[in-house]
Amino acid sequence: MKKIAIHGSAFEIGQQLGEFGREAWHQKLTLTALWQTVTAMKDADQTVAMRALVQAHYPLIWQELEGLAAGLQAPIEEVFAWNCRGDLVRSTSDGCTTVAGQRADGVLTIAHNEDGFPQLRDDCAIVSIRPDSGMAFASFAYPGSICGHTVAVNEKGVVNTVNNIRALHRPEGVPRQILARAALNAATLDEAIAILTTPPRAGSFHHTLGQMGDS
Prior knowledge:
Layout: E1 2-8, H1 10-27, H2 33-39, H3 45-57, H4 59-72, H5 76-82, H6 85-88, E2 97-102, E3 108-113, E4 125-131, E5 137-141, E6 151-154, E7 158-164, H7 176-183, H8 189-197, E8 205-211
Parallel strand pairs: 1-4
Antiparallel strand pairs: 2-3, 4-5, 5-6, 6-7, 7-8
Helix pairs in contact: 1-4, 3-4, 4-5, 7-8
């Protein structure tokens, strides 16, 4: 598994993530049927509405997405749509698993399995990110995607593991991957829950949350 360290402004962080994933984006992701389906919806009313919500409510994450597009050398419209894939299509082929439990001595464990595109097996990484604004965190990262929608832990010890939900009802709202990224800036579990449950929300995710030192 590759390990990379990234720091800088929101745009610079996105740009470095894009550079890391550029080869896989152009040589693998763009050849998938899901990519074709999702990017065909890049100018749909639903996508445009989500884009406006992200720009208004999460400007730093929007800058991260713009940097991601620059690093990928891909149009921002396509990159944004790809990061909204679970909001735009009802069923995607990926789906992960989280197992949580407690030992007899009270120690809590959260274990997570990532189950994305098998062709990206050698193109993922564990990234350590220290933004100029916001919490530092470590996350599993897929090429072409912002962090937060897999498994991550931030500098306050907030752990977030994420699994797919194939929701039938997907109202107009903030994309699920954007909310998952925003939750990495939470200092407490209550704050993370507030971010993830604040309406309006588009797609759905299953989150398992924990925090070091919080039983």
